[in-house]
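Q: Structure tokens for this one, please.
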Amino acid sequence: MTGFEHALAIPQWNLRLRVMIYRKHVRHQTAKNFQLDLFTPDDGHFEYYAVATNMALGLPALFAFVCGRGAQEKTLAELKGEFALDVVPTNHYGANSAWQQLSVLAYNLARNFQLDTLAEPKRRSRKRTYAYLLRSMRTLRFLLIARAGRLARIGGRNVLRLSENPATQALYTGIEHALIA
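A: Here is the predicted structure, written as tokens:
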């Protein structure tokens, strides 16, 4: 990865921006089959990145930070896949708006539940993505809900019997204590 920095003045907006231009050497030919003249154009195949910023980071640190911004794509994919944000259930604007708000509310509830119970702090990295290790809703479903068990009728009542598993018991006990606190 190589790059350079340029101060870009936009007088109409009375603004000065730091613009970083990066290039990354790749083994394949670029999609459009041309090279920009920002660097020597005949020394291989490259992908180019341009970043305008007001952050006081150097070239390597800013590139790592920008690469970490892809974590938002996982959030959007989870909203669309697990919380049905990409569904338009009716032809009524108000109902569709309520559906989207409920989807986002359910997502936020799942995240806050994890922050209160299961979330483990992550080591701070140069990418600066999430501060905690958060699981997807699909993972939570299999971790907490979809457990093998047997419904038995004991003493005239239905009782759910789960197999004895110390790890699962510790997990549920830890969640119970976190919710009580």
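A few notes: Residues 52 and 142 are 42 Å apart (CA to CA). The radius of gyration is 25 Å.
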